[in-house]
Amino acid sequence: MGESITDGTLATFLKKPGERVQADEAIAQIETDKVTIDIASPASGVIQEFLVNEGDTVEPGTKVAIISKSEDTASQVTPSQKIPETTDTKPSPPAEDKQKPRVESAPVAEKPKAPSSPPPPKQSAKEPQLPPKERERRVPMTRLRKRVATRLKDSQNTFALLTTFNEVDMTNLMKLRSQYKDAFYEKHGVKLGLMSGFIKAAVSALQHQPVVNAVIDGDDIIYRDYVDISIAVGTSKGLVVPVIRGADKMNFAEIEKTINSLAKKANEGTISIDEMAGGSFTVSNGGVYGSLISTPIINPPQSAILGMHSIVSRPMVVGGSVVPRPMMYVALTYDHRLIDGREAVYFLRRVKDVVEDPQRLLLDI
User: Fold this and answer.
1) Among 227, 225, 277, which residue's Cα sits nearest to residue 247?
2) Is the pTM here over 0.90, yes or no?
3) Which of 10, 31, 136, 291 could, after both became Cys, cross-link 286 (CB 3.0–4.6 A)?
4) pLDDT tens for residues 60-71?
5) Rounded to an integer, what distance in angstroms lies between the CA atom of residue 77 and that of residue 62?
6) Is 219 tagged catalytic?
């Protein structure tokens, strides 16, 4: 596990007792608040037994399995040994370590049996609930879902959330992509999407309104002189927010390659915690799911988030005539404790100006 992880839930065993494994072969998966981590076998051998059960909470250094190298020797597998400090205070001698999983499992079995009085209130608390039906099923929340729920609720409880909206004419950006998509792909080996245009527009807006890139820390305001853009990626296991680091120093091709790489890792479950840590501003594209308009929630410890939405052809007045235009609603949710309405509106107007006229980026106007 990484240094920022204190524990995790053993999600599933990939092997069974009695099966032979090779060194560095994954035998189980641990689900943390952010990512799913494989537990690798430290040596080749046969799995003798598992010391924990699926669903148990394990800490770095906890013995997970015993792998027999021969009749006389065996190797114990742990989630990680990178953080000995967190395990020194709990597991003492090796003899006690072997009993630790049994000690942990014993209280779990005793808790419902030993205290005879607590069970009745727990059952009575469940009694008012609707009885189970044939078409209903109860599934425990994953650690990632719990973490997302906690962070989003903390965001609502901490920030003075306010959202401002605008609409963007996507004609010129879509025309730019259509005109250069083949040449762009031929040179850079990646498709030219609309996301890179919005990332560049967000970078320009953050440079014009640096307070949107800042954050409150106690009684101080921290102004960040760098732009690390987080992008919200929805996966089958939940929402993850990888970071495009140094987005202010990237061109369109570098941004597109980074987005593709991070999105692929997120969907495959191989993204690392370091790739999701930090970030000074978030861009969320609900338009890929067909969202017309929304009020995104700030990703702590940031102070604002830009929401993109679906592109819809709508009648617009251009040069005194009503013509169909591909339009997108954009939303900026910001912490009103730090960012005034004027700065928020100016930020969104800058995004609109750059997306509607990408040549501004070339001329820096």
Assistant:
1) 227
2) no
3) 291
4) 878 888 888 765
5) 8
6) no
